[in-house]
Design goal:
This protein is of the alpha/beta class. The protein is built from seven helices and six strands; from the N terminus they run αββααβαααβββα. Helix 2 packs across helix 7. The relative contact order is 0.20.
């Protein structure tokens, strides 16, 4: 009897994992949760943790202040509700010890992405959500890596994710790191 129960559980797990993932084209409506910098690592920069936190808040606010440039509905080709509070709320918890790294090869793992999604407070939102998770911000190479993640809000299961490494440029800390976010947003349609 125990063997039968174990076999049934195993089959259910395999069946659940074998279900076909949705493509971005099949998702007509989602909630955009901003740019989550809580697991970002900065390499080779001189600015302070507080300066970075302020820049991170400013980057998230660009989605509201410059909606034509940071057009999430156009990027995801869907009806999008912007709710940036979940990502902005996580910025206060960033510590100096966690933010700066000497590892120029830092990259978000699937486990970190899953953990990041669990930490996002999605409130009453239903259906699907998207977040851009910041990885390595490499000042030495002027490049930022960001992972676009689309997930099912109810189950917190990742539906799609893809990382993009883009050139950073611009005057001021916020603008410098906002540029690769902007370029990443422009590549969302390439996610299959």
């Amino acid at each position: 009897m125990k063997k039968m129960m174990v076999l049934m559980c195993l089959l259910l797990t395999v069946f659940a994992n074998a279900q076909e993932k949705k493509s971005l084209k099949e998702i007509g409506e989602l909630t955009f949760l901003g740019v989550d910098f809580s697991q970002a690592r900065v390499f080779g920069a001189d600015e302070t943790t507080e300066q970075f936190k302020e820049a991170f808040r400013g980057i998230n606010n660009l989605f509201l202040r410059e909606p034509k440039k940071y057009d999430t509905a156009k990027a995801f080709d869907a009806k999008v509700t912007n709710d940036l509070d979940p990502s902005i709320d996580l910025i206060d918890g960033i510590s100096k010890a966690d933010l700066f790294t000497q590892d120029e090869n830092y990259a978000l793992t699937e486990a970190q992405i899953a953990e990041g999604i669990r930490k996002l407070n999605t409130g009453d939102a239903k259906g699907y959500a998207a977040v851009i998770m910041a990885g390595l911000l490499n000042k030495g190479r002027n490049k930022g890596t960001f992972t676009v993640v689309v997930f099912d809000i109810a189950t917190k299961d990742v539906v799609l994710s893809e990382s993009f490494t883009e050139r950073a440029r611009g005057f001021g800390l916020r603008n410098f790191w906002a540029y690769p976010v902007y370029k990443t947003l422009g590549k969302v349609k390439k996610i299959k």
